[in-house]
Amino acid sequence: MASYATFCRQAAKIPELVKLMARKGEDAYRNAELISFRDFNSIEPLDFCVMDHRVLDIFCLVRDGRGWKLARPWITAAIDMRTRKWLAWCIVEVPSSDSIATVLKRVFGRYGIPKACYWDNGRDFRAEWLEGRREHKRTAGAAGALPNRWAGVLETLDVRVHHAIVKNARAKLIEPNFGRIADFDRTLPEWCGHKPGARPERFEAMLRDHEAWLDGKLPTPPFRTIEQIAALYNMALENLNERELQGEGMRKVTPTGMGWMCPNECWDVHIQHVERRCVPEEVLQLCFAKRRELTVRNGEVQMTLAGQNYHYRLTGNALGLLGLNGRKVELAYDPLDMGQAAVYHEGAFVGLAECLSLRRMGEDAFVEDERNRRAARREVKRLINTIHNSVPVLDPETYLSRRMEVVPVRPEPARLEVLAAIPERITLAHAAAVEEAGFSFDAAEPAIVAAKPAPEPNTDEEFHFFRGD
């Protein structure tokens, strides 16, 4: 038997990592194992665009087929690795490749095309739409065996994709920065905690108020809608870009010593030396947008998505689609950003279209539409008159006579003739009609010969009136 002092001496020799895993588990052990520190000063802004999803620690109202329901929204965001600047984001009910594409398109349109994207191995990030066709193995190969580029949308835009090491969330710089968003979640009345056991007492009262609102007992809902939450987080993330951030590569010199730059300040300092790789907006629409074939009616493209109608007219030219009335066009749209779309006809880009809100009584939009209608009607009449005056149109007689001059001679083709069977009485009647038609009194022989009158005596003694005496 070992003494107590011997046992304590031997137990003290056990490494701290072993005791940490035995007491607190793998998560605590992972925070104490080897870490690779990056040299942030060796990279430039937009060298790596880091992206990920995160479920917010709040509840909000989301539409469904029967009205409203409570749900925890997600945020899909992109952050610049060098400056930690939040580049773009969107608030959605369920994250997907659509939300990724929406964020990427906003980054590309506002800041330019980054050199590479850095994200995890989720199914939505490995979507064929983004990376193209590629067989993914369960086991990760050596880093040198990875291809330089991936197929799909990002290959079209010459953007390389880097996937983080499996089960190593810390490798993505965006993960610790999500903690700043979690701190903002705690300031909201809709905060529910990161797990059911962490919910505050006030949240239960809000749930009771929500049930009362559904029953019509309260005039206003206690929870905000997902659109209101999205507007709120837009301001929150813009505010985070203006707050000082401690980290590698964020130091600055101040009159009183050393300080920390905010992401926007760091961005302004380093982005000046980075070329802006940009593409036309219609190219982004072509690369990212989903397409639907629709018919142009009344000078606009109408589409229904999730039970809601959307009306699109060309940006800056409300009458531009009137010439395509009744024709099929392709509408390239973003399911998460329906404010703008692209219109294609027969494979050619027609123009960007903006979504119009429904007209309301008392607004001047009706007057503007009426002006556009009258202007279009005048333009059509003017076009018709111009064509009639500039293009010579022949009268019908001249047109037909010219056509007859070029009509080819078409002789009747020879065919085998066969007499049709006709009743005998019709044949006899026809023969009699022909015989009668050919009869001539001049050619006919006289049937009666007139007798010559006997000469009468010539005497002057007796007068006969009828004989002409």
Structure, explained:
This protein has 469 residues and is α+β, with helices and mostly antiparallel strands. It folds into three domains: 1-34, no CATH class; 43-134 and 147-272, Ribonuclease H-like superfamily/Ribonuclease H (Nucleotidyltransferase, domain 5), CATH 3.30.420; 281-358, SH3 type barrels, CATH 2.30.30. Helix content is 32%, strand content 19%. It is built from 14 helices and 15 strands. It has helices at 4-11, 16-24, 26-30, 97-111, 128-131, 153-156, 174-185, 201-214, 226-240, 263-270, 281-288, 365-390, 396-405, 424-437, and strands at 49-55, 60-64, 67-71, 74-80, 86-92, 116-119, 160-163, 251-254, 257-260, 290-295, 301-305, 308-314, 328-334, 337-345, 348-356. The strands form four sheets. It has a six-stranded antiparallel β-sheet with strand order 10-13-14-15-12-11. It has a five-stranded mixed β-sheet with strand order 5-4-1-6-7, with helices on both faces. Strands 2-3 form a two-stranded antiparallel ribbon. A hairpin with a 2-residue loop joins strand 14 and strand 15. The radius of gyration is 47 Å and the shape is elongated.
